[in-house]
Design a protein that fits this description.
Number of strands: 10
Radius of gyration: 26 Å
Helix content: 40-55%
Bound molecules: iron/sulfur cluster
Shape: elongated
Largest sheet: 6 strands, parallel
């Protein structure tokens, strides 16, 4: 089935699933309260957005220079940097590394880029056991599901569903008490943390002037997963680079504020290379895989390159009325919601053009974006690109006819009269072109007389 058809079917099913809607609404209500509190803690939230936007603008405009600076610093500290042009190159690099080093167990901390390149299955094919160590990611891993949301991967699940999953997959689960469930997950993870030979993380930011990767989590799992195994592999998109260490002073709190309403995420870590001689913690090997996978093509589009500024806070998903109805899985993509709908046609091609239409264009995504990406206008640009790429014949004919009609008042009046009669006749039938719309909405009743007739008859 093509992705557009699949999306329509999934979205139609989810939008009438009241249990799904209930849990999403509950979580989003909770988020809105937290977000308002988080924003209120800023003396000047709009000012913070302006500064973050300017930092990321600078980073994107000089991406190549900052990445080279970052690479040089990492190498100087004994790290390895691998430039992966495609998802396949990135997957192969990590899988071959695991094979070469005899890795049997891998711990991962949350990373959307590794989802994007399907790294877990590549490592499993290479003979590794792979464990997600972010609790939400671990839950969806147990259920063999992709993440539902870029920040909160298990947002769609109720406590009961999580309990059922744990009971089925883990031994000795007898209660749905969250404390017990977390303790059970922790037991599994601790064992993995101490036995894994490789830890894989993403990066929230790559700091050019110091060659550090910046990681931010609320569970501390990234610290254990990157410090205990003897190999640390960072898999990250090239757009994550920022110029200076001091930029994190505003980027970190703004990211936390927009994502979860926190002042700052609980654990913020900077890592710059393998363990050095006088250090007790850290890996023996440190590899950074810098993934392109369509990003430089987007960078080349001056009109839309600002989409690369995204810091993956998830705020645009939370604000989007479409996402709130259909949820994350309906999109069938790694990045969902408004930013996913903007990026995916650039990353994965025209099969995903339909996502740009999954928006009310209300602008709520743009209004909430902490780096001020003009999301809803990018969705419009994607629509324009989609139309330019392949405009259906029927649509072309319809627009020509529309233009021809609108250029003559007599033709307009004639067609309006025909349209009125047809609308009444066809409404609700298989021939009604608006039947999808009318299935869920009461169509407006056509007035008996048009304004012109009323004017002519002296009614107005
Ligand atoms: S586009 Fe903006 S709001 Fe959406 S995830 Fe990225 S940074 Fe957050």
């Amino acid at each position: 089935m093509n992705p557009a058809r699949e999306f329509l079917l999934n979205a139609a099913a989810k939008s009438v699933d009241l249990a799904h809607r209930k849990i999403i609404r509950k979580n989003m209500d909770h988020y809105e309260v937290r977000l308002a509190e988080g924003v209120a803690r800023f003396a000047d939230w709009e000012g913070a957005r302006d500064v973050c936007s300017a930092i990321k603008d600078d980073a994107i405009e000089h991406l190549g220079d900052y990445l080279k600076q970052f690479e040089a610093k990492v190498k100087a500290r004994g790290g390895v940097v691998f430039w992966a042009e495609t998802a396949e190159e990135a997957r192969d690099y990590v899988a071959n590394l695991a094979r070469d080093r005899g890795v049997k167990r891998v711990v991962k901390s949350k990373s959307m880029v590794t989802e994007e390149i399907h790294l877990t299955s590549a490592l499993e094919r290479a003979g590794c056991e792979v464990l997600e160590t972010d609790l939400g990611e671990y839950i969806v891993q147990l259920r063999n599901e992709p993440p539902y949301h870029i920040v909160t991967p298990a947002m769609h699940l109720t406590r009961k569903e999580i309990y059922e999953t744990f009971k089925e997959k883990l031994p000795g689960i007898t209660t749905d008490e969250p404390v017990e469930l977390v303790a059970a997950a922790r037991r599994v993870m601790r064992e993995f943390f101490f036995s894994a030979e490789m830890g894989i993380s993403g990066a929230n930011f790559l700091v050019a002037d110091s060659g550090m990767i910046a990681l931010t989590t609320n569970e501390g799992n990234a610290r254990l997963g990157t410090a205990l195994p003897r190999i640390h592999v960072v898999v990250t998109g090239i757009e994550k680079v920022v110029p200076k260490l001091s930029d994190l002073g505003i980027l970190w709190p703004t990211l936390a504020g927009a994502a979860t309403g926190q002042s700052l995420s609980a654990y913020n870590t900077l890592i710059g290379g393998p363990r050095r001689q006088n250090e007790v913690d850290g890996p023996e090997e440190f590899h950074v895989v810098l993934l392109d996978n369509g990003r430089t093509a987007l960078l080349a589009e001056s009109e839309q390159r600002e989409a690369l500024k995204c810091i993956r806070c998830g705020a645009c998903l939370n604000n989007c009325p479409v996402y709130r109805q259909i949820g994350g899985h309906a999109y069938g993509t790694t990045y969902q919601g408004p930013i996913g709908s903007v990026l995916t046609p650039h990353f994965r091609g025209h099969d995903f053009d339909h996502l740009s239409y999954a928006s009310s264009l209300c602008g709520a995504c743009t209004a909430g974006c902490p780096v001020k990406i003009d999301l809803h206008h990018h969705l419009l640009r994607n629509r324009r690109n989609a139309v330019q790429n392949s405009r259906p014949l029927l649509e072309r004919i319809a627009f020509r006819l529309f233009r021809w009609t609108m250029l003559s008042s007599a033709r307009y009046t004639w067609f309006a009269g025909i349209g009125k009669k047809l609308a009444t006749l066809l409404r609700g039938t298989a021939f009604d072109p608006l039947r999808e719309w009318n299935r869920y909405r009461t169509p407006p009743q056509m007035p008996k007389k048009s304004f012109r007739q009323m004017w002519r008859d002296g009614d107005v």
